[in-house]
Amino acid sequence: MLTDFSLYQTLCIALVFVWTGFVRTGLGFGGAALGLPLMLFIRDTPLFWLPIIGAHLLFFSGLTLLNRLHNVDWRYLLRSSLYIIPPAIVGVFGLVNLPVLWLNIFVYSITLFYGFIWLFNRGIESRHPWADRGLLVLGGYVAGISLSGAPLMVAVFMNNVGKRQLRDTLFVLWFILVGIKMTTFVALSVDLHLTEALTLLPVAAIGHLLGLKAHDAIMRNDRLFKRWIGGGLIAVSVLGLGHL
Fold first, then answer.
1. pLDDT score, position 86
2. CA count, 13 A, side-chain hemisphere, 99
3. Of 121, 183, 191, 110, nearest to 153 (Cα)?
């Protein structure tokens, strides 16, 4: 329950959820990847935060797509889902069964990787069909275990989906993956923390609206934005791994 946190912790939680909402709509991906490492400083239990993040993602991606489904590349989404969904399901079972320490190390390690490639402007590139499939499988597994696989899959989608359709197509993909994750949680009797998700929804909405307004500016300054974010991710990941 949020009432279990101190006033200072509650304020930090609110700021982190503003940030995740901002990143989710500002970049079109990465809300969990850039928010979960910060949340683990407040409570180091991924299974507490991921259902809340998932509920928000379902709500906001559904809201965004309400009048945008015509702008989705359904053909490529269907083809890529064959490589993404099976490992994502495996990842969800890993999330539920692996020790918390292992999960936290995994989250901080993958975040550290993203931090370095963004700081040094080294994008994840795929030049061959087999590399595309490998990134989709790996991204699906990472998304299943921590919802942090977006940058791996985006690298492939950027080469196969038109820029005009990219964000809407990705939102549909996130909706499907989170729907699978939340359904699995229900089947395994994992607490979805819906009360906490509803309580934090207005806070995340602030970030969502700010991200919508900043999206075009972020896209024009994509490299600079990611370089600053990369430096921050490295700092957070090193501190997190040192704490563990």
1. 92
2. 4
3. 110
Q: Rounded distance, CA 20 to CA 158, Å?
A: 22
Distances (CA, A) of 225 to 27, 48, 171, 236: 10, 29, 21, 17
Across 48-76, average pLDDT: 85
Rounded Cα–Cα distance for residues 32 and 149 (Å):
9
Q: Distance (Å, rounded) from C-alpha 230 to C-alpha 69?
A: 32
pLDDT in tens, 83-105: 999 999 998 888 888 888 888 88
pLDDT of residue 186: 87
Using 50, 70 and 90 to split pLDDT, how confident is the model at 123?
low
Cα 51 from Cα 230, distance rounded (Å): 25
Structure tokens at 172: 């549909």
Q: Which residues contact 79 (CB under 8 A, 6 or more apart)?
A: none
Residues 6+ apart with CB under 8 A from 233: 34, 37, 111, 112, 114, 115, 118
Instruction: List C-alpha distances in Å: 18 to 6, 10, 57, 207, 232.
Output: 18, 12, 13, 4, 16
In this predicted model, what pLDDT tens digit does every residue of 125-168 receive, in sequence order? 767 788 889 999 998 998 888 877 877 888 888 888 888 888 88
Q: Please give the Cα distance from 51 to 185 (Å, whole number).
A: 8
Q: Are 132 and 126 in contact (CB under 8 A)?
A: yes
Q: Is the dihedral of CA 156, 157, 158, 160 positive or negative?
A: positive
- Check residue 45 and report its DSSP letter: -
- Rounded CA-CA distance 61/31 in Å is 12
- Using an 8 Å Cβ cutoff, are 42 and 228 in contact? no
